[in-house]
Design a protein that fits this description.
The protein has a domain of 51 residues. The chain is built from 2 helices and 2 strands, in the order E-E-H-H. It has a two-stranded antiparallel sheet. A hairpin with a 4-residue loop joins strand 1 and strand 2. It is flat, with a radius of gyration of 18 Å.
């Protein structure tokens, strides 16, 4: 693990925030759901909305999942 690189999103070492794939994915989801519209340029928003109107949305099972708290134990 590279201690010289720190990710503020994960609050851990190993990679820098600018290279964080999980952060980029989280930002994309926020933009797609409309929560970050004020941070997206108007022309980019119009292009994305036009593309979304053309594409047929696929069913995303991950969005329909419910988080269930689970505790695992190992016994002998």
């Amino acid at each position: 693990m590279d201690k010289s690189k720190y990710c503020r999103y994960h609050r851990s070492h190993g990679h820098v925030t600018e290279d964080c794939i999980h952060l980029k994915d989280a930002i994309k989801i926020l933009i797609q759901k409309g929560y970050a519209r004020k941070y997206v340029k108007e022309e980019d928003r119009e292009n994305k909305e036009a593309q979304m109107a053309i594409d047929t949305p696929a069913t995303d099972d991950e969005e329909n999942r419910t988080a269930v708290p689970t505790a695992f134990a190992i016994t002998r």
